[in-house]
Amino acid sequence: MDVTDSVAASRQRVIGFADVVRIPLRRWRIVLAVAGAVTLAVLGYLLFFPATFRATTVVVLRPVVTDPFTLPSSGADRAINMTAENGIALGNDVIDTTARILNQDSEAIREALSTEVPTGGQVLRFQYAGDSEDSAITGANTAAETYLRVREDIYKQQRAALILSYDNTIKSVTSQRLAAQKDLPSRQSSSDTASPRTQATLDQVSALNDQIAQLANARAKVASADLSPGSITAAARSPIPSSHDAGAIYLLGAVLGGLLLGMVTAHAREALDRRVRSIEQAADLVGLPALGVVRAAGRHHDDAAAADARYVSLAVLKWIDRHPDRALVVLSSRNDEGRTVVTGNLAVALAEAGQDVTLAGPPESQEELKRVLFAAQKRTPPRPRTLAPGGSAGLNGSPAADRLGRNTGGSGAGRLSAPSTRLAPTQMRVSSNDPEATLIMETSVRQAPSPAPAPVNSAADLDSRLMVVLIGGGVVRLCTLGEEPDSGVVVIDAPPSDTDERGVRAAQSGVAVLVVARDRTRNAELTRLVDRLRSAGAQTVGFVLTGGRSA
Question: Is the pLDDT of residue 373 over 70?
């Protein structure tokens, strides 16, 4: 393979818009498999996994104020740090207390409990997931109540510490006032003017009394403050949603999601699986012209495949005229690329053009070749032929019939000897001792019976594997691979080259026609087959693109 072929083989085909739809349709098994797997997974989840019930309790928080009936100062309604409150709600105190109340493990409570804090608000939502409706409702309400109690206990501890501080301060100021009062004279007349020292002591005592009054007033406000951190505004109650409520929607989503994932998988498989997708791509890989496209043969497409093979035979006939007595070897990498149908229809098309064709194939493809030949004989009945005496003059004087007479003449089961016998279209079988040694000819004798054929000495007088089929104005002889003649028009259905080298060996003395199956032949396999032919020195006349399905 030269540099140009190497570059062509490594070039990645561009996927167009039409391939976006064509690829999933062609790889529909992958799409359905992925969609089915996703759907079965969701269905198994709905059937085998218990439903999870999720209850929600809403708690509204408020700041702690000394007088709830007065308007708060600016910003007092946003004085709560919701991040801190969320941390307290999921803290160890709330989790452990809730676990003791519900008689459950703390880790299970931590996994089941979650909180939500709406942006810009003072609302705390407690969500609890349980395996039953009652357990979920109980868990959410218990967690919310536990949080309020824990938060209130924290406020109480803070208030107790603040009151203790006020008490200590009042006690200290009272001691200072008593000490100052001791410095005052025990008796003083109202008419006497107080000395400056006495007046200063009186002012000090008065200031201490005012300070004690202020501290007492502040202590009283702290002691009378409402320490409730908030209240439950929406307790969890039945009914509550579960994970299985929207089962139908889940299944629908699984089907749609599975189809989408399957399409993605199909495109990924397409990118990794480099196969021949078009006749242009095959021409780049092979480096030879295309002889034609043969549609996939099937239950309703046999006639279409035969018609396509006739157009391929037009290109092959030119080569046969220029290179007589060289076998035409039809090759493919594998056995599922439609090679046998192409070979049989090509031999039929050459016979319909008046050629005497020898069709050789391995034993495993004999039945398929017979089916193609019999279908072609029904489609194109043999023309009336004249059998000369001894079979030497041929049928109707045609070269094909003359070669038929030479191949079937002499002693043996295949010999037909009748003076000037006219044959009309009906069927006659001349058999030997071997039940497979059958000459199939659409003929009928219209004149007096001819002399009986010579006695059969042995089955070796005629090849027991030879079968002759008259199609139109030509003849097709079907034989086993390796028993084909060295001259004449020979078409060989070669075995797959990946497992058998006889096809490449036959192509060394003949010429090869490659069969490439659309969407089935891999680039590497086709490149390997071309390399083998070039290494063996075999000539390749071109390739035929099939529909990509096994016949």
Answer: yes
